[in-house]
Amino acid sequence: MNETISIIIPVYKVEAYLPKCIESILRQTYRDLEIILVDDGSPDRCGEICDQYAGKDERIRVIHKENGGVARARNDGIECATGAYISFIDSDDWIAENAYEILYQGLKQYGADCAVGRCVTVYDRDGVLKPRENKASAVKCETSDEAMRHVLLNGSAVWNRLFKREVFREIRFPVGRVNDDEVVALHAYGECGRIVFLNQDTYYYRIRQNSITTSKFSLRNVDCYYNSVDNLEFIREKKPQLEECADYKRIRAMLYCYIHLRRLKGDPKAREIRGMLREELRKSRKSALKNRYLSPAMKALFAVCSL
């Protein structure tokens, strides 16, 4: 008998995209699913759409709550999940019909605690979808340290992954911040013995106008710096051998925020944060210029900004 997979989907202001997301889950060839739709106080018809689907399929559970953000919605989903495995989907994305069969079999075949499928990036221009084709790749198994290093040097998301439930025994999403996927992915990989990266497309990631990932820089984006600081502290405590990688992430986040905050010079809070970052740049000058992961161009930029 197959084991149950709990799929957690935060839902907020996506009524135009939600049916495609849910339908792709209902068509899964892997049938033992617990589908948790967390209606995060959405002001449109999302709550109604969730209830309609729940009336059609008993595997769907709907949580209606006041708006509290994606992190809190995901945490509520984790608390309610009963499956042996946990997965996350963003409600404007969708998955291949055999996505969970691929991920589940990958976990079993390679004795992994987390399986990662390939993601297809889809550009949405006024409803016209243009997928970006993936290059051929091979299956790759990584240790916890290797996968965490990849997160620190390249970034990561939490969707398009299948985790053993035990991985999230203590881990929760930081409430009130954006760009929190990398924090959780890093901590989650830290709880894994092995992570397998598969060579089949399982997830379709929609990039649309006016989403968080495509919006202009604002004070909310400074969270990427605060997250990088938290990650550095975590690495120093748990995986000190990866400290230089974590500091690389912090330095890049520092530079990114410092440079972009200049565009918000009329905002007193932006000036305050930029001043704080300038002091951090100066304090970090020595370690940054020695960091082997920073490119010569990044080091030159850092040298100028930290004067």
Q: What does the model show?
A:
The chain is globular, with a radius of gyration of 20 Å. The protein is of the alpha/beta class and 307 residues long. The chain is built from 11 helices and 10 strands. The chain has 2 domains: 204 residues, Spore Coat Polysaccharide Biosynthesis Protein SpsA, Chain A, CATH 3.90.550; 87 residues.
List keywords for this structure.
Spore Coat Polysaccharide Biosynthesis Protein SpsA, Chain A; about 300 residues; about 20% strand; alpha/beta; 2 domains
SSE map:
Blueprint: E1 5-11, H1 18-26, E2 33-40, H2 46-56, E3 60-65, H3 70-80, E4 85-88, E5 94-95, H4 99-110, E6 114-125, E7 128-131, E8 140-143, H5 144-154, E9 161-164, H6 181-190, E10 194-208, H7 223-238, H8 243-261, H9 268-283, H10 285-290, H11 296-305
Helix pairs in contact: 5-6, 6-7, 7-8, 8-9, 8-11
Short description:
The chain has 307 residues and is an alpha/beta fold. It is built from 11 helices and 10 strands.
Largest sheet: 10 strands, mixed
Round the mean pLDDT to the nearest integer and report it. 94
Uncertain segments: none
Label the overall shape: globular
